[in-house]
Write a structure and sequence with these properties.
single chain, alpha+beta, Immunoglobulin-like, Rossmann fold, 7-stranded mixed beta sheet, 6-stranded mixed beta sheet, 11 helices, 35 strands, 18% helix
């Protein structure tokens, strides 16, 4: 089971690299080795720097929640089913086990859907990630239960899930996709990238086992054919050959739900929606609130009810609402019943349509229990899946978040019933039904690495399921051909200057920055990493520059070709503020492709003045220091760099390189072309650098595009494109 590497990543330790050295300094900074292997960055004041100014956003709200604090997402609607958003704190009453509780936390969450504007919809995906503002949108965890979805309904599930992503997901929402079988093709960590989410959904394949009724019926028929007697006459039970596997699959699905819910326990102040798409499990799950502890069931000997209890317990503690969607729609199991071609003489065996309906009832009951006990909705017996997803989006866009400290601090692991009321008449209230209290001595699970590099705080933040705000970061990654079998990935991180807490010492002001970069593969293994500390020491008069430009730092890691989750984190020591960015990294196989290209790196003349640490990392790779800014003034000069890899040198040929600046309507406003001969290749590489003055370009969104086309084959064309904005 792969809950997007939660717990897996935490068990790994990144390699620690510390380097020192001097480089030829630009006018505005120099680097000096000091304090052993740490670097000290001393930034001088240059009044004439033309540095692009980034707009600053207020820091995100930080929630510090006690272990006893209970959050309850609450939806209030009128008689027409419309959300009522005019209530105040005093309009709510909370009861736990029938006893009134004091409402300690109250907020109205109303998240509008912000989609891509028409001016940017046709352009390439952004190549810079940031954590500015923290979590602003909705948080969805899409669980595709391939273990309990029939193969014939694969297309239905994929179409429904794709519709949810394409129509109900806003630009600032975070969504993860997980399959219950753990198939890597059907998984995607939290991201806002619709292309990656749809790609994960496209890997889904239903693999539900054949109906237990049909399997038992086959067993019955075989006995009759062999002995001429039915199993009842022989005194033997009718067996299902896949009985044990059904039980294990049910447990695996419930364990997946449990672990995913637990991983979101540290996310507060937002509803957390788990969107489960699957046909449910056909075991009795209706006795949850009775807390039956007896061993399992007669079918498999495994405790399915205990697993249901654990899954709901985890969801209730983490305040995760589960929305269950049955892809079978309105059904009477007629499609499955068509396979019945023989009926036993004994109707009590229920190896007929009645038995199939019982399977349907049990599986739908499991979907209802998971949803109703966690404050979600079960969507069963309906062919309108679009309406189901619209409701999920609506209920996670507008709601009240209430919080309270239970009057009773009894810690016995018992179920605590929650009831939320409003004093205004005529309104309907829906919230989760309760939670499970911790047991004595029990504390929330942690995900700290066993061998954490650097501070425990940063290591813990890097192991969480979603990125962390606080210290605002912008990050960009660029892959270049490296020493086989690895690829070199240059990661550029810009830290918001307002995040530093400097201390004055001997006429200087100082702070220390801790940085960690990890590339994590689909199995949760860290394949490339770097961790280092930087001592930043500047003159007090230079602080204003750092506040405007931020502080840029460069890292380089080596990984094989493939797809990775890139985790970038930074922590400054003065105030202990930290931030993380979780994004995706796709590394091509430059060694085997006939024609390929590195990522297109952008910088500019003005952004060259941003204070930078560890720039010597790029000395043998790039002629420019990459910028994470994608907003440039019209008088600036855009700088581009890429490497083109041509593995067809044995046959003499020419490669055409075309640089274009495209406006929002995809029309080229700048176009340059040059030719390179295969005789000029250096280790199979063309290095390409260009400067494009932005003078004359009006304000707006543009795209820088580099195309390489081999004349050996007209189909051999590679393109890299980066979006940016020009301001007056």
């Amino acid at each position: 089971m792969k809950p997007w590497k939660i717990g897996v990543v935490a068990a790994c330790s990144s390699a620690r690299h510390r380097r020192s050295g001097a480089s030829a300094p630009p006018l505005w900074y120099f680097e000096r080795a000091m304090r052993g292997s740490q670097l000290a960055i001393l930034v001088g004041l240059v009044a004439s720097l033309g540095i692009a100014v980034r707009s600053q956003e207020p820091p995100p709200v930080t929630f510090k929640v006690d272990v006893n604090y209970v959050e309850v997402g609450t939806i209030v609607t009128d008689a027409q089913g419309h959300f009522v958003g005019t209530l105040g704190k005093d309009d709510f009453q909370i009861f736990e086990d029938g006893r009134p509780q004091k409402v300690a936390g109250f907020s109205l969450v109303d998240i509008p859907v912000r989609r891509a504007s028409s001016s940017t919809a046709g352009l390439t995906e952004a190549d810079v990630s940031n954590n500015a503002g923290g979590l602003q949108g909705r948080l969805y965890l899409v669980v595709l239960d391939d273990l309990h979805t029939d193969l014939s309904r694969t297309a239905t599930v994929k179409a429904a899930a794709r519709r949810f992503i394409e129509r109900n997901i806003a630009d600032d929402d975070l969504v993860a996709v997980v399959t219950t079988s753990g198939r890597l093709e059907g998984g995607q960590d939290f991201t806002s990238n619709r292309r990656l989410l749809v790609g994960a959904i496209d890997g889904f394949v239903g693999q539900k086992l054949r109906s237990a009724v049909l399997e038992k019926l086959d067993s019955y028929q075989r006995e009759v054919d062999l002995t001429g007697k039915d199993l009842g006459q022989l005194g033997r039970p009718v067996n299902d050959a896949y009985d044990v596997e059904r039980g294990q699959r049910a447990r695996n699905t419930l364990l997946t739900i449990k672990r995913l819910a637990e991983s979101l326990s540290g996310v507060h102040g937002r509803r957390k929606a788990m969107v489960y798409i699957g046909e449910g499990i056909d075991y009795s799950t209706t006795n949850f609130e009775q807390w039956r502890e007896t061993a399992g069931n007669a079918r498999t000997g495994v405790s399915i009810e205990g697993d249901v209890r654990d899954a709901i317990t985890a969801a209730s503690r983490s305040n995760v609402s589960i929305y269950t969607i049955d892809p079978r729609g309105l059904t009477n199991m007629g499609d499955t019943g068509m396979e019945i071609n023989y009926l036993p003489q004994d109707p009590n065996l229920r190896l007929d349509s009645a038995g199939l309906l019982e399977e349907l009832r049990l599986s739908q009951d499991s979907l209802r229990v998971l949803a109703e006990q966690t404050g979600g909705v079960a969507w069963v017996n309906s062919n309108d899946l679009a309406a189901a997803f619209d409701r999920v989006a609506s209920e996670n866009s507008s709601y009240y978040m209430l919080g309270y400290y239970p009057a009773s601090d009894k810690r016995d692991g018992g179920f605590r019933k929650i009831e939320v009321r409003v004093t205004r008449p005529g309104l309907q209230v829906r919230a989760r039904k309760g939670y499970v209290s911790p047991r004595k001595g029990e504390s929330p699970a942690t995900r700290r690495p066993a061998k954490a590099e650097g501070s425990v705080e940063l290591a813990d933040a890097l192991s969480r399921p979603i990125q962390t705000g606080g210290l605002t970061l912008h990050a960009n990654s660029a892959a270049f051909k490296g020493a086989a079998p690895n690829t070199s990935v240059v990661v550029t991180v810009t830290v918001d200057g307002a995040g530093f807490t400097f201390a004055e010492k001997d006429g200087w002001i100082e702070d220390k920055l801790e940085v960690s970069v990890r590339a994590i593969d689909s199995k949760g293994t860290i394949r490339g990493s770097e961790h280092f500390d930087l001592n930043i020491r500047i003159r007090p008069e230079s602080r204003a520059i750092l506040m405007r430009t931020g502080f840029r730092v460069v890292s380089k890691i080596d990984v094989p070709s493939g797809k990775y989750d890139l985790h970038v984190g930074a922590r400054e020591s003065g105030g202990g503020t930290l931030g993380t960015i979780f994004t995706n990294l796709e590394v091509p196989d430059f060694a085997t492709l006939p024609l390929s290209m590195s990522n297109l790196v952008l910088s500019s003349v003005n952004t060259g003045g941003v204070p930078t640490g560890r720039a010597e990392q790029l000395r043998d790779r790039l002629p420019i220091v990459p910028s994470t800014l994608r907003e440039f003034r019209s008088g600036d000069e855009l700088q581009l760099f890429a490497e083109v890899y041509d593995n067809q040198a044995a046959t003499p040929h020419t490669v055409d390189l075309t640089t274009s600046i495209l406006a929002g309507d995809a029309k080229a406003v700048v176009r340059r072309q040059e030719q390179r001969s295969s005789a000029d290749l250096e280790d199979g590489t063309f290095r390409y650098a260009a400067g494009v003055p932005l003078t004359g370009l009006g304000p707006g969104v543009y795209s820088a595009r580099l195309e390489a086309a081999s004349r050996l084959d007209q189909r051999m064309v590679v393109v890299r494109e980066v979006q940016f904005r020009v301001t007056p």
